[in-house]
TrEMBL record:
Region (Disordered): 1-20
Record keywords: Amino-acid biosynthesis, Aminotransferase, Branched-chain amino acid biosynthesis, Pyridoxal phosphate, Transferase
InterPro entries: Aminotrans_IV, Aminotrans_IV_CS, Aminotransferase-like, B_amino_transII, BCAT-like_C, BCAT-like_N, BCAT_family
Pfam families: Aminotran_4
Compositional bias (Polar residues): 1-17
Database matches in CDD domains: BCAT_beta_family (cd01557)
Catalysed transformations (reactions): L-isoleucine + 2-oxoglutarate = (S)-3-methyl-2-oxopentanoate + L-glutamate; L-leucine + 2-oxoglutarate = 4-methyl-2-oxopentanoate + L-glutamate; L-valine + 2-oxoglutarate = 3-methyl-2-oxobutanoate + L-glutamate
Organism listed in the record: Tetradesmus obliquus (Green alga)
Name used for this protein in its record: Branched-chain-amino-acid aminotransferase
Length: 373
């Protein structure tokens, strides 16, 4: 809580001293009505409504990170020999800005995203961005693109902070220079059926997402394209996505391609532990705390796929998906349905409602998670 207050103070102090863009105060933000020509009732999850302003900062060994600046959304300049294009030195984050019931523009736990980005940078031998600069960069980008934030309940401005080794290099090694950028787009539900429509998942039995001692716990760009071969195959068979098993025994659930997974039996909720092979999701951590505050026993421990097939309910969490009910899980040809057709599971719906109401200031925030831009 103290860290958030310090960052907010730093963000507003820095904003008042800079002339690179006008600062929207909260009262102005509350009065702002989106003026861009977007059909808010038909938002998908993509770049159809990309915001027109992005943030860019550069790092060099002589100067470290510069102050960064807002620029029109467009290409980043780099050579074909850029480290990221050859050796994949890159981490990213996913965040959302939303309009709240109190007329504010809000982010959700940006300090956690900053910390995860810094941890990923250290893992990939990149210079981490200071927390205050990360949060300020995101807030600046949000305010500059306020018109792209949908009306409350219609979606969000999805934000993509991206740190990459942009400097040229031939032999394997850290980049000589780095770029940090933040861009965004107005989005709706991540999965095709809609925000609360249950999804059908299949357990992947051949490929693994990560292995012990590897990169599974880092939000590195290179972790994501390898899942496409299984994800695309699953979608051809009418599944929304796949669930990966642990690489050692093929026994325990790890995570879905881009979100964490939870299993409920009675009042006990289990989710795989952070052992280095799954991503430490911000939504995952928040749901654990939120569920415990609502009387659930939440255990972070290995979840056998056979136990998941016998559970009362399964759901996934992530910034993009929020909380998504799993309608069915298929394993070795056996399909287990958890919900009635088109109906979200009771606990997934309860936690989704509690989380989104907190995020949009429709309910009190006893945890201090909401950050007002």
């Amino acid at each position: 809580m103290q860290l958030q207050q310090r960052m907010r103070a730093s963000a507003h102090t820095t904003a008042s001293k800079t002339s690179r863009r006008p600062l929207l105060c909260r009262a102005q933000a509350a009065a702002t009505t989106p003026k861009v020509n977007i059909n808010w009732d038909n938002l998908g999850f993509g770049l159809q409504d990309v915001a027109q302003t992005m943030y860019v900062a550069e790092w060099s060994p002589e100067k470290g990170w510069d102050k960064g600046a807002l620029k029109p959304y467009g290409p980043l300049h780099m050579m074909p020999s850029a480290q990221v294009l050859n050796y994949g030195q890159s981490v990213f984050e996913g965040m959302k800005a939303q309009r709240s019931a109190k007329g504010n523009i809000v982010l959700f736990r940006p300090d956690r995203n900053a910390a995860r980005c810094a941890a990923g940078a250290e893992r990939l031998s990149m210079p981490p961005l200071p927390t205050e600069q990360f949060v300020q960069a995101v807030a600046d980008t949000v305010r500059a693109n306020a018109d792209y934030i949908p009306p409350i309940g219609k979606g969000s401005l999805y934000l993509r902070p991206l740190l990459l080794g942009s400097g040229p290099i031939l032999g394997l090694g850290p980049a000589p220079s780095y770029t940090f950028t933040v861009f965004g787009a107005a989005v709706g539900a991540y999965f095709k059926g809609g925000q609360l429509t249950p999804i059908d998942l299949i357990v992947e039995e051949h490929f693994h997402r990560a292995a012990p001692g590897g990169m599974g716990g880092t939000k590195a760009a290179g972790n994501y394209s390898p899942v496409l071969v299984t994800q695309l195959a699953a979608k051809k068979n009418n599944y929304a996505d796949v669930v990966y098993l642990d690489a050692k025994t093929d026994t325990y659930l790890e995570e879905v391609s881009s979100c964490n997974i939870f299993v409920r039996s009675g009042k006990t909720i289990k989710t795989p532990p952070l052992s280095g092979t799954i991503l430490p999701g911000v939504t995952r951590a928040s749901i654990i705390e939120l569920a415990r505050s609502r009387g659930y026993e939440v255990l972070e421990e290995p979840v056998a796929v056979t136990d998941a097939m016998e559970a009362d309910e399964v759901f996934t969490t992530g910034t993009a998906v929020v909380v998504c009910s799993v309608g069915s899980l298929t394993y070795r040809g056996n399909k287990r349905a958890f919900t009635a057709e088109g109906q979200a599971g009771s606990t997934a719906l309860e936690l989704y409602t509690a989380l989104t109401q907190l995020q949009t200031e429709q309910a009190e925030d006893p945890f201090g998670w909401v950050y007002k831009c």
